[in-house]
Design a protein that fits this description.
heterodimer, A: 323 residues, alpha/beta, Nucleotidyltransferase, domain 5, five-stranded mixed beta sheet, 9 helices, 13 strands, B: 291 residues, Rossmann fold, four-stranded parallel beta sheet, two-stranded parallel ribbon, 12 helices
Chain lengths: 323, 291
């Protein structure tokens, strides 16, 4: 049976999805990247393989996320796509007719506006990462709460406190202040969710027309407190898709399926890549005063790709596999 | 006398500028500091004009007005500064007047200075003609050309010249667009008179000259509909552009349903973030073409 693999190599999590020809999810893996993207890809491939029935052949691979090039080189991708397009495609695929996508991931957040199944506008957070997954993680840890319970706790609050959400650092000091005044944990948790939603709507979604249906995806969408805060602020229903945490990977798989239906052969190197030795070498180029940091990826002793140079002196020696 | 021009921006120049300039200034001012300090090591005299206005009834960005003073008080050991005030806002001949006077202070005769001014004007108008034939300044400087692509693959690139034509600061944006198969149109390619006409249609007089350039150009191409999308490049924290950008974005998106991308640059801008946004923007445009 033909199937398509989507990989989203993000800063915080690395996700794998395998889609069948008719769009059924055959495997779904969510891993923490933990600062080691190569290991995450290898581990993910191994786990994906073990979850798949033996009669599956991978006929196409798509990669996305901030590490999309690395993942693409490692596995031999048929398409390498940015995460904005991948998330937009996945949302339109999951809920045809969706008009707004709110996406909050580990270190970035974005809004995607669609009309008639087409992306017409988008924005991504620029200078501030307040409200992203990493920040919530940290605050939950500081309150001594497992992040999974954070949303539930917020839902129990009757009197949310107002927390300054303009800046992540100040939000934290404001939270500490509110704790010291004696406010309850749930009121602070809900107040924080509201502050982060305000920050998102003012910074990322600034000036965008938010119309229903609204999808909320990305790792943070698992937080019911955040979903509720969005619903309150937008005064409309917000949907969290079942695959919310792996929507980027889903989009990459959908793109791979589109890309390889006509062309017969996939570039996929096979699951054996999980046993390969990958080596990353960094070196500074002294060809000019820019002193670019060039990265070289080797797999099984062979140079697979180089990047990081501004002029193409190193990267163009090896043809890169891109979309 | 030999004229030395600073090299294209590179990592050293940017680092030098970021260290030396006031924290609160925008990226172009920091880059400018870097260039000035790089030049300062090798010259006897630095030409840092006080640029106030390039055309009647307009102002250039206020940071240019303060530049000579910022430099003077930066605490660095600098060679002699020549800082003629260039202000065409009220007096049309302020530029030649001030420049000729500056040249005379350096020991040149009035005749020589006026001849130089005249020659510079001629060179400038030749250069402008080339720009108006559809070349970017980088195409002219490095003898490159625009990619040969389908006529509907045109992008309008708006921004202050020192941002959109500095390949280091914008991480090779124009080349990235070329590589993806787009021709790049910039405000310099339209006759200034046409831009003026369009900008004059605003309900209120816009007195920032770079803002007029952007608004006038955008209006022209939105009316003509001959571009597939607009990319607006701004420096983080740019005051005038915060208003002009909003105006452009509203007109493009709400009035003309034109794809519009705002790219903000500062010294922390990573190449990854820029590439992701540009790629997604081009995907969006191509998606439209398909359906």
């Amino acid at each position: 049976m033909r199937a398509y693999l989507g990989i989203d190599l993000g800063s915080v999590s690395t996700n794998f999805i395998v889609l069948s020809q008719n769009g059924e999810v055959l495997a779904n893996i969510y891993l923490r990247t933990q600062g080691n993207p190569i290991q995450a890809v290898k581990k993910g491939l191994l786990r994906t393989k073990s979850e798949l029935p033996s009669n599956i052949t991978i006929s196409g691979v798509g990669t996305t996320g901030s590490g999309r090039q690395l993942a693409g080189i490692m596995v031999g991708a048929d398409i390498v796509k940015n995460e904005i397009t991948a998330h937009g495609i996945a949302a339109a695929n999951e809920v045809p007719g969706v008009r707004t996508v709110l996406e909050i991931g580990g270190q970035d957040s974005k809004i995607i506006i669609l009309r008639d199944g087409m992306v017409i506008d988008f924005a991504m957070n620029t200078v501030c990462a307040a409200g992203t997954g990493s920040f919530l993680d940290r605050q939950a840890e500081r309150l001594g709460l497992p992040i999974e319970q954070f949303g539930q706790l917020a839902m129990r609050s009757q009197n949310p406190v107002r927390i300054a959400g303009r800046c992540a650092v100040f939000a934290e000091s404001d939270m500490i202040h509110k704790q010291q005044l004696g406010h309850s944990m749930e009121d602070i948790a809900r107040g924080l969710c509201q502050a982060l939603v305000r920050n998102y709507l003012n910074n990322v979604a600034k000036g965008k027309d938010i119309f229903p249906p609204v999808l909320f995806q990305g790792g943070v969408a698992a937080n019911v407190g955040m979903k509720q805060a969005f619903e309150e602020a937008l005064q409309m229903e917000v949907w969290v898709p079942t695959q919310h945490a792996v929507m980027g990977a889903l989009g990459a798989a959908v793109l791979a399926r589109r890309k390889t239906t006509d062309s017969a052969k996939s570039n996929f190197r096979g699951f054996k890549v999980s046993d390969w030795n990958f080596d990353v070498k960094g070196k500074q180029c002294h060809g000019c005063s820019n002193c670019c940091e060039v990265v070289e990826i080797q797999g099984e002793g062979q140079t697979l790709a180089r990047w990081g140079d501004r002029c193409g002196r190193w990267s163009e020696q090896i043809p890169m596999q891109t979309a | 006398m030999e004229v030395v021009v600073s090299p294209p921006t590179d990592k050293d120049i940017l680092d030098l500028g970021v260290m030396a300039a006031e924290q609160e200034t925008c990226l172009p001012v920091k880059v400018c500091y870097g260039h000035i300090l790089t030049l300062a090591k090798n010259v006897d005299c630095l030409f840092v004009p006080r640029l106030i206005s390039c055309q009647k009834d307009t102002y250039i960005c206020p940071k240019f007005m303060g530049l000579p003073d910022m430099i003077k008080h930066s605490g660095y050991n600098l060679p002699q500064l020549i800082t003629p005030t260039l202000n065409a806002r009220e007096r049309r001949n302020s530029w030649p007047h001030s420049l000729v006077r500056a040249a005379r202070e350096l020991g040149f005769s009035r005749r020589m200075a006026e001849a130089a001014w005249y020659q510079a004007r001629q060179e400038l108008s030749l250069y402008r003609k080339k720009l108006q034939q559809g070349h970017t300044p980088l195409d002219i400087l490095f003898s490159r050309c625009q990619p040969d692509v389908a006529s509907d693959h045109n992008l309008l690139l708006l921004g202050h010249p020192y941002n959109i034509f500095d390949e280091f600061v914008n991480m090779n944006l124009i080349n990235q667009l070329y590589r993806r198969g787009y021709r790049v149109i910039t405000p310099e390619m339209l006759p200034p008179r046409l831009i003026e006409q369009k900008a004059a249609k605003l309900p209120k007089h816009l007195f920032w000259s770079l803002g007029r350039l952007l608004v006038g150009t955008a209006s022209h191409y939105l009316e003509e509909g001959s571009v597939s999308g607009i990319i607006h490049v701004v420096s983080f924290g740019c005051g005038p552009d915060s208003l002009v950008g909003e105006l452009l974005e509203r007109r493009a998106k709400k009035v003309s349903q034109m794809p519009f991308l705002l790219l903000t640059l500062d010294e922390h801008t990573g190449e990854g973030g820029l590439i992701t946004r540009v790629e997604a923007f081009l995907d969006m445009i191509e998606w439209r073409h398909v359906s």
